[in-house]
Structure formats: structure tokens, C-alpha cells
């Protein structure tokens, strides 16, 4: 079993890898994320399963990005809830499964379905039912690298991983030898209240980095971690981010990791849109990014900048100018 790095007030148990009994809130949510990126950024993707049992639906997203190719996207915000005791989603358009074979250890994720082909990723914010489609399959495994990172005060944890297996896009099967992260959280999740930045990547020397900043209108020592090559997770506080936007999309972010400041620049977007039970829209730009540390190291990973209604006034810290 992977070692749990304990800190703060939240202690994990092996049973936390399983599904949890829902709370009473309409927007109580249980979420699993799995992402990956090739070291050179040539191919990357992610899967998210979000369960809203009190809203009687699941959200299932899967995305694949490749250099010089359009976004391939499955984005279903009205999926059926999995059968009790499973985390599998089956519809007429796709079948998706996930298996965590050992608590905090290997996770196996599969997908076989129909994805939209989106040359303009922002088409994901609208009705892209008329988009061309192709078959997209994932047969991937996430293996824990160096332990488990629980958040301080909320039921959520992150696990840096190596990722292996295959993806098939449009009839072409591609072997995956990548790095990534998986996470799991549960509790009330109101996507239309607070904006945030979340980021995770791996540098060329083998260092994993992760940070999160929710924009609550005042500064806090936000959590982050780093994993040195061959080492264990090092918990740190004091992460902050400054972001510039162009036409509503993030153009770059300066990430202030304690001792390792860096810049992330989007390489390929894979966004989705979400609508609240009362009809409020939110945009969720997620992107494969190039990570460039001030000490010269570089790598790739994923960053997200959630944009609920009024996100511009939620306390985002902007850079002085947008790059051209």
C-alpha cells in the first residue's frame, strides 16, 4: 500500500478509496480525476467522474489532446448514476469503467465510446451535438509514485503517478508512457460559487509539483506539494498564482511554489461547460500546459481555472499585461 503523508486535520483510511454515503446537500458530489501527459507534451488526456446522487445524475468527461490535432472530447453532464457498488458509467454512446485494485495503489481506467472532434476547443462551451465524431478508447493504468497527499481540512487527496497503457483515436492506437495525477474528493461541491486554480505537472528531472488556490477574496497560505526525484511527497504551504487572460481564456499563470517559482503556459485546451440546477452557467477551461521553472527546468502537466458566474470579481490575481 502506498504511504499516506499525514498533515493537518484530515486523516485518510483505505476505505476512503471507495464510494461514500452521500450527505443531504443537493450538490453533494463525489469526484474522481485521472490525468496524464507525455513528458514531451505530444499527447495528454484526462477523465473525470463526478457523482451527484441527490441531483440524480453523474458527470462524465474524457478528453484527449495531441500536438497538431483537434480536441477529442466526451462531455456528458446528464449521465446515469453507476449501479450501487460500482463507479462504471454505461450509455448508448460510451462505456467507462474504473478499478482501484489496491487502496492508494494502482487504478485502471477504460473508455470505449464516441467523442466529438473540436478543432476550436471553445466549441465545448456550446452545443456541439452537430460536431464530427470519432471512436475514442482508453485502456490506462495509474501507478502511485511516492505516496498520497491528503488536503488539510477537506476530504480530498491527490496521488502523483506514472501512467501506462494505450489510447485509440480514430482507428490509431497509441502507446502511453506518461506521468500524471489522480485525485478523489467528496462533499458539497457548488461549481457556481467560487473560482479556483488547480495545477499538477512533472519537470524534466523527475520532480512532481502540485498546487491549488481558491479565490475567496483574501490571501491564504494555499497548500501545495513537490516530489523530488526518487523521493517522497513534501508538503508545503504558501502557494499563490497570478494569471493573465485573453478573450476569457487563460494565457499564462505564474505559480509561486515555495522555493520553485515557475510559469505555466497552455499548450492545448480541453474545456467543458456546466449548468447549475437553476440554470446558471459556468466555464471550466482545463489545459495541457508547459511548466517552466525559473531555475531552467521544464515539463508538462495539467492546469485548470474554474470560471463560475462573476469569476472576474472573485479575487483572481492578474498579471499586469496579457501576452500577445
TrEMBL record:
Any matching Pfam family: DUF7065
Domain DUF7065: 157-189
Domain DUF7064: 191-309
InterPro entries the UniProt entry points to: DUF7064, DUF7065
The protein's name in its UniProt record: DUF2804 domain-containing protein
Organism: Actinomadura darangshiensis
Phylogenetic placement of the source organism: Bacteria, Bacillati, Actinomycetota, Actinomycetes, Streptosporangiales
Amino acid at each position: 500500500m502506498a504511504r499516506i503523508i499525514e498533515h493537518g486535520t484530515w486523516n485518510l483510511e483505505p476505505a476512503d478509496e471507495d464510494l461514500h454515503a452521500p450527505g443531504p446537500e443537493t450538490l453533494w458530489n463525489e469526484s474522481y480525476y485521472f490525468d496524464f501527459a507525455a513528458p514531451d507534451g505530444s499527447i495528454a488526456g484526462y477523465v473525470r467522474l463526478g457523482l451527484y446522487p441527490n441531483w440524480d445524475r453523474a458527470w462524465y468527461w474524457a478528453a484527449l489532446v495531441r500536438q497538431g490535432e483537434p480536441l477529442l472530447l466526451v462531455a456528458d453532464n446528464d449521465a446515469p448514476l453507476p449501479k450501487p457498488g460500482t463507479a462504471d458509467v454505461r450509455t448508448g454512446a460510451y462505456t467507462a469503467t474504473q478499478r482501484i485494485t489496491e487502496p492508494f495503489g494502482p487504478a485502471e481506467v477504460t473508455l470505449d465510446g464516441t467523442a466529438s472532434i473540436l478543432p476550436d476547443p471553445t466549441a465545448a462551451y456550446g452545443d456541439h451535438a452537430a460536431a464530427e465524431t470519432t471512436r475514442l478508447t482508453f485502456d490506462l493504468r495509474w501507478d502511485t509514485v511516492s505516496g498520497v497527499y491528503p488536503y488539510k481540512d477537506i476530504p480530498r487527496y491527490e496521488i502523483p503517478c506514472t501512467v501506462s497503457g494505450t489510447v485509440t483515436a480514430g482507428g490509431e492506437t497509441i502507446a502511453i508512457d506518461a506521468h500524471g495525477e489522480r485525485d478523489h474528493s467528496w462533499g458539497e461541491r457548488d461549481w457556481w460559487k467560487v473560482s479556483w486554480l488547480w495545477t499538477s505537472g512533472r519537470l524534466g528531472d523527475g520532480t512532481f509539483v502540485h498546487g491549488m488556490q481558491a479565490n475567496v477574496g483574501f490571501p491564504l497560505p494555499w497548500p501545495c506539494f513537490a516530489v523530488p526525484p526518487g523521493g517522497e511527497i513534501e508538503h508545503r504551504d504558501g502557494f499563490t498564482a497570478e494569471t493573465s487572460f485573453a478573450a476569457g481564456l487563460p494565457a499564462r499563470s505564474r505559480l509561486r511554489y515555495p522555493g520553485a517559482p515557475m510559469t505555466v503556459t497552455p499548450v492545448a485546451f480541453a474545456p467543458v461547460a456546466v449548468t447549475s440546477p437553476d440554470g446558471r452557467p459556468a466555464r471550466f477551461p482545463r489545459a495541457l500546459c508547459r511548466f517552466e521553472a525559473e531555475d531552467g527546468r521544464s515539463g508538462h502537466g495539467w492546469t485548470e481555472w474554474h470560471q463560475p458566474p462573476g469569476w472576474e470579481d472573485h479575487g483572481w490575481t492578474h498579471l499586469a499585461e496579457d501576452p500577445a
